Amino acid sequence: QVQLVESGGGLVQSGGSLRLSCAASTRTFSSQVMGWFRQAPGKEREFVAAIRWSSGITDYADSVKGRFTISRDNAKNTVDLQMNSLKPEDTALYYCAARTGRSLDVSPTHYSSWGQGTQVTVSS
């Protein structure tokens, strides 16, 4: 399995921006698609965005479309999540994940490798 390490979380005011980064130990068949998920206290883990390493094709949850941008750097094996116009409801623990297969799957159960998570807190 690929090892994933997230960074970049923190505390920001409503309307502010943060950039999360996920460093992958390698890019192999087991990590064709990279995703960002989040989990708020008392809630289920939910899909945020995903990107395919090879083509850069992306997908987003409706709640973040137009505000968040996922990108990858193939040379550095990193996947970033630029978050703009943050809202208090974006507060959560954000996870980076990797999956085998080419589909930009939104289900966390279809991702086999996970990072430890990075906390994002948006104050009102």
Describe the structure.
The structure is a single chain. Helix content is 0%, strand content 48%. By secondary structure, it is an all-beta fold. The strands form two sheets. Strands 2, 4, 5, 6, 9, 10 and 11 form a seven-stranded mixed beta sheet that branches. It has a four-stranded antiparallel beta sheet with strand order 1-3-8-7, with no helix packed on it. A hairpin with a 6-residue loop joins β4 and β5 (46-52). The protein is globular, with a radius of gyration of 13 Å.
Task: List the defining traits of the structure above.
single chain, 124 residues, mainly beta, 4-stranded antiparallel β-sheet
Write the layout of secondary structure elements.
Elements: E1 4-7, E2 10-13, E3 18-24, E4 33-39, E5 46-52, E6 58-60, E7 68-73, E8 78-83, E9 92-99, E10 113-114, E11 118-123
Parallel strand pairs: 2-11
Antiparallel strand pairs: 1-3, 3-8, 4-5, 4-9, 5-6, 7-8, 9-10, 9-11
